Amino acid sequence: MNSIGYMALAVSAGILAYTYAGYPLLLRAVCLIRKPRRVPSEAADPWPLVSITVPMYNEQAQAAELVESLLALDYPVDRRQILIVSDGSTDGTEEIVRRYADRGVELLAVPERAGKTACENAAAPRLVGDIVVNTDASIRIMPDALKPLVSAFADPEIGLASGRDVSVSRGDSAANLGESGYVGYEMGIRDLETAVYGIVGASGCLYAIRTPLHRILVPDSLSRDFSAALKCEEHGFRAVSIPDAVCLVPRTGSIHKEYARKVRTITRGMETLVYKRALLNPFRHATFAWMLFSHKICRWLAPLAAVAGAVGLALLAPAHAWALVALGVGGVVLAAGLVGWALGDGRPLPRVVQVAAFALSANVAAAHATLRALRGDRDPMWEPTRRDTPPEPMIESGAAGAFGGPVRPPGAPR
């Protein structure tokens, strides 16, 4: 039994350590060995024509605020198109958007709900820009974010540029703090991937892509933002992350809603990767295949690794005090996560409890999504996560950049 316990514990520790520490350290080591790859940041002359698209479903409460924020972006008015796509909205969303027609805002009303990806596919023929900028209704793009995003395309090898998500909350809210730390960690990984080669998945909150790549249709049940980076690799382009293209991502106050969102997005991500599985071939895609496996598949294996580790410790605990102590610590963390899950919907809880609850929720969501993907479940319909849009966003600390520098707060001087 000891040998089985040691084996289970070694496999578990190896997967978890590589996924969350080894992979970032290897990326950083590559950056030390060779010069990091550069992304252009110079102003373009003239600026490319861009099409900004936003899918909406019953967003009456924030439709006007969103459109106003898009009109306020620092970009030449004659060089941008704003297209709002209503996915069969039944409230006043479409009427609100139509009020902005005289300011150049266009509306594409899909008569029946078809899902986010289907709406984006339907919008493709209406796009007039050389570059398509994709965002969501609950996201607020900082006014100075669009130009850094578009500047990246001065490099003909870059096919996609992804923005930097910054997790925010209302000034009086401290809910779901684990999400803030995770978002900062994820953005750091993307910075390292950009310096080494390129990112393996774009941020659905804000990313820009060359129009010919965007026009390639994606099956309705798949994730367009994930597949966009995969399409870049297929067609010989890089996908990169742009630290100065900041967008504010309001946290959901409910960990249960966040769990449901994660299950949907991970399931769609798994189905997308199966659809594009040829990109995992290391003989054809080398560095990209390694990064795709490390960033995506290893994270999806984390719940299984955690269970294997618990089994290993349980087998070793009768004979080894250290295993018993480790098992006890794990039990305390699990208990804290369960308490956070049970009580954490909008309630102020200690940060350690919130972090434990977020970690538990994320790993259970990955396991749940794996079961759904294995069953072949399809969920093309889109139920947007209703986030609180903070009037005075608070940027959480701890979201350091990949090379040790802090993330630039929105509005701060460069």
Structure summarized in a few sentences:
This protein has 414 residues and is an alpha/beta fold.
List its traits.
414 residues, alpha/beta, Spore Coat Polysaccharide Biosynthesis Protein SpsA, Chain A, 2 domains, 12 helices
What is the terminal separation in angstroms?
58 Å
Q: What would CATH call the architecture of the largest domain?
A: Alpha-Beta Complex
Contiguous uncertain segments of 5+ residues:
389-414
CATH superfamily assignment of the largest domain? Spore Coat Polysaccharide Biosynthesis Protein SpsA, Chain A
Label the overall shape: globular
Largest sheet: 9 strands, mixed
What is the tally of beta strands?
Answer: 9
- CATH hierarchy class name of the largest domain: Alpha Beta
Q: Report the average pLDDT across residues.
A: 87
* Tally of separate domains: 2
Helix share bin: 40-55%
Reading the helices and strands in chain order gives HEHEHEHEEHEHEHHEHHHHE
Number of helices: 12
Gyration radius, in Å: 22 Å
The CATH topology label of the largest domain is Spore Coat Polysaccharide Biosynthesis Protein SpsA, Chain A
Beta-sheet strand percentage?
A: 5-15%
Question: Structural class from helices and strands?
Answer: alpha/beta
